[in-house]
Amino acid sequence: MCGITAAVGADDAVSRLLTGLENLEYRGYDSAGVAVANGNGVEVIKREGQVDELVDLLSSASVGGHVGLGHTRWSTHGPPTNANAHPHTDCSGELAVVHNGIIENHAELRDRLRGAGHTFTSDTDTEVVPHLVEEYLADGAGVEAAFRRAVADLSGSYAIALVHEDEDAVYATRQGSPLVFGVDEGTDPQSASPGATYYLASDVPAFLEFTDDVVYLEDGDVVRVAPDGYDITDPEGTAVERPVESVEWSPDDVEKGTFDHYMRKEIDEQPTAIAQAVRGRAEDGRVAFESLSDGAFADVERVQFVACGTSYHAALYGAQLLRDRGIPARVFLASEYATTAPPADDGTILVGVTQSGETADTLAALRRGRSEGLRTMAVTNVVGSTAARECDETVFIRAGPEIGVAATKTFSSQVVTLTLLAERIRRDVVGSHSETAPELLDALSELPSAVGSTLADSSAESVAERYGDSDAYFFIGRGTAHPVALEGALKLKEISYEHAEGFPAGELKHGPLALVTPNTPVFAVATGAHTEKLLGSIEEVSARGAPVIAVAPRSEQAVAEAADDVLWVPDSHPELVGLLANVQLQLLSYHTATLLDRPVDKPRNLAKSVTVE
Ligand code: AGP
């Protein structure tokens, strides 16, 4: 999705903006640009393509200044072209605007502005904003008032930032799209430029190497940032207090280090991520979350989950564990829930599972639930995210920043957190943890080392090579292995562009079996539960000549013997084996994609954080 950056007060705003854009590349984009206000008007440099290409363009343009905006565009309205790239300007070129989100009433506004004599140069919804501001300036308003009046005309979701040639400042606002504000007060007198520098961005990693002090802006906030300070007001202009918070993520967390890809680094980080998710939450045989008091779930009669993509698969895993503990739980694709919500009542808790906390579909589903009076909870990775701020309660998965578009460590951290949550809900509702809790909590404490040995001993690379020339790839599993099969297929198709599908093993014979041939390998995920039935499914596909690759713990000898190849995982609690199997499937996807020379961290057409519905 689009990425916004702004830098105010830096000696060389352009270099800060470019760093920000590079750090936001993981969000997915197809064009990039910057605008700088430097006392000689507003200079805009932008183009379709990668940030590297923008850098080349800038090297021959000698653009400088202390105040500027940057943008990476992920096309929604109009194809990726130079003209559609942001920033967008008004007719006079006195001001420039960047935007993330969708302006729903853009067609109507465009008609109105065209009627008033404005000339449009792009297909974007965004371009109405600079022309609206221009219109209000012509009406006699100052820059701030014109910006506020323009924003008041918009409906939809947006984070917007603006520079005007008459002011050494950036104006910005948000409504339903992420925008964070970084504060570096520059108090170090030894520094070459001891003044304050401020940043605006769609996500904290954009400016994390410059400051870890962040203000999480709220919907409706309008911020004016100048080199000598900033103020934050509501849409009517009344000052609002927003605390400056320090983020715990370090700049190293958002660097690739010695790895070729963020995805590979993040796969490797899973032992640490899992340990962080469990830390302090499973002591003396009791599950406790820092944010939830004892008895917090006593009135819960059922759990509804909403999520998208990988988070949806993690939610399916968590719902299975809840049902196994006697708690009714169902999972809904957030985009469906937002439009066709199922019946719910006072005993329902609506849980949004979202790594970023900014996925528009998930936010819309949670808002729908809230509007009907449901209690809402966010299970998210990002402190200060919209989901965390809007829900009644939040549980953080503590995975650390995930940059690769393909979610890896956050799936594992979500599953671990939801495993703990299932036990925690069960204790409040039933009065005790499940019978399996002692073994499960022991296995959770061993899980980081089990993931470590899965990574160290994996033969996923040679399996990827062996089956690299297949027509399609199928993944099957039962129980908690079913979401793992779905996730294995999603990961493979997402980064390798190979056709892949996941099925509940029992459903194969009801249709998908027609697709199975000797050139469609089938990955069978075994957890130690439902083994006989999984063996039946393996026989069904073997009889059609399909190679079978078991993803199984050592104790599943029968499954291994029925398969042509095995991706082994360590024995663990049956409810956690699926997570270990998923690590093998992440590696399989990674190696398949690298063998095909795919851009693993930035797959085509995809964005890390999907902030439009
Ligand atoms: C995962 O690899 C995908 N990139 C995608 O499916 C993602 O999980 C989905 O967009 C949900 O994101 P969220 O967890 O940030 O809400």
List the helices and strands and how they pair.
Elements: E1 3-8, H1 13-23, E2 31-37, E3 42-48, H2 51-59, E4 67-73, E5 88-89, E6 95-103, H3 106-115, H4 128-138, H5 143-152, E7 156-164, E8 170-175, E9 180-184, E10 197-201, E11 213-216, E12 222-226, E13 229-233, E14 245-246, H6 262-268, H7 270-278, E15 282-283, E16 286-287, E17 302-307, H8 309-324, E18 329-333, H9 334-339, E19 348-354, H10 360-371, E20 375-380, H11 386-390, E21 393-396, H12 409-430, H13 437-456, H14 460-466, E22 473-477, H15 481-496, E23 500-504, E24 522-525, H16 531-543, E25 548-553, H17 557-562, E26 565-569, H18 574-595
Bound molecules: 2-deoxy-2-amino glucitol-6-phosphate (AGP).
2-deoxy-2-amino glucitol-6-phosphate (AGP) binds at residues 308-311, 354-356, 359, 362, 405-407, 494, 609-610.
Primary descriptors:
binds 2-deoxy-2-amino glucitol-6-phosphate, 18 helices, 22% strand, six-stranded antiparallel beta sheet, alpha/beta, 613 residues, globular, 35% helix
What does this protein structure show overall?
The protein has 613 residues and is α/β, with parallel strands linked by helices. Helices cover 35% and strands 22% of the residues. It has 18 helices and 26 strands. Strands 3-2-4-1-10-9-11-14 form an 8-stranded antiparallel beta sheet, covered by helices on one side. Strand 17 (302-307), helix 8 (309-324) and strand 18 (329-333) form a beta-alpha-beta unit. Helix 3 crosses helix 4 (128-138), helix 4 (128-138) crosses helix 5 and helix 7 packs parallel to helix 12. It is globular. The mean pLDDT is 93. 2-deoxy-2-amino glucitol-6-phosphate is lined by residues 308-311, 354-356, 359, 362, 405-407, 494, 609-610.
